[in-house]
Amino acid sequence: MPEWARRIGGGGLAAIAAIVLVTAAIGYRVWSQHAEVPASAAPADPIADLERRAQAQPKDARTWQQLGLAYGELGRFDEAAKAYRRAVAADPKSAVLWSSLGEAVARASERDPMPPEARAAFAKAAALDPKDPRARYFLAVEQDLAGDHRGAIDGWLALLKDTPSGAPWDSDVQRTIQQVGKINHIEVQRQIAVAAANRASAHPAMPGVPGPNAQQLAAASSIPPGEQQQMAEGMVARLAARLQQQPNNVDGWIMLMRSYRTLGREADARQALAKALTANPSAKAQLSEAAASLGLS
């Protein structure tokens, strides 16, 4: 974790929740559990394939967005930011692309937790779509960094109220509120309960589906579900292969566990945890905490 992240909420907790928002808010890894893409359909090197497509279609915002997502999944945030700059240039009226750019710029920074470019990108996203969850999340992070912990908590509570129950970032936003409240001696449990209760009528659950369905979330990102499936599976497979060669990468194992969990591959997530613990016994506490947050323990 960059040193600046420890300033957020007094313990870097907001940054942890942001990892979920970066993908879940635009529906990148959320799709129908029944969608099937043959393994042979996935390119051998998805990143290289996306780079070629982006260069061949420089005004195609969707391809630059996919490339930014792929770079972000691999932790290459400087490159993700460059891709999102091209995406917003091609489609400057997309709130999702602006908030994606802001998140990539913020996570690429080693010193400034909210660089001017990131702040401007989140403000632009919020102006285009006041409900954009990622922009709202990070604008509250900015308040927290400025010392306005109550204002930040209020911002996250408002986001929670508008978050469908069961959304991928739901539990992380709640956890952020709880931890920042605890660190700063602000009572939040009752407010969380009120926000959760108030959203029940605004976001009624659909039979068998917690929160919005896969098609609704996918539509928000303008990436066809089949392409989402193909790209995500390819990214996860490449990450797993890389960890076989670099088993001491604890953050990589946590990313793999989260990715498997989001894909609904719980058995694979547990197997990844076991491999991570075997390869990194000294990181047992960190890995166990991450596993618990994902419901794997």
Task: Summarize the SSE layout with pairings.
Blueprint lengths: L12 H12 L21 H11 L4 H13 L3 H14 L4 H14 L7 H13 L4 H13 L3 H13 L8 H14 L5 H14 L11 H8 L3 H21 L4 H13 L3 H14 L4 H10 L4
Helix pairs in contact: 1-7, 1-9, 2-3, 3-4, 4-5, 5-6, 6-7, 7-8, 8-9, 8-10, 12-13, 13-14, 14-15
Task: Provide a descriptive summary of the structure in words.
Mean pLDDT is 74; it is low at 1-44 and 200-223. The chain folds into two domains: 3-221, Serine Threonine Protein Phosphatase 5, Tetratricopeptide repeat, CATH 1.25.40.10; 246-293. It has helices at residues 13-24, 46-56, 61-73, 77-90, 95-108, 116-128, 133-145, 149-161, 170-183, 189-202, 214-221, 225-245, 250-262, 266-279, 284-293. Helices cover 66% and strands 0% of the residues. The two termini are 23 Å apart. α1 packs antiparallel against α9 (170-183), α4 (77-90) packs antiparallel against α5 (95-108) and α13 (250-262) runs antiparallel to α14.
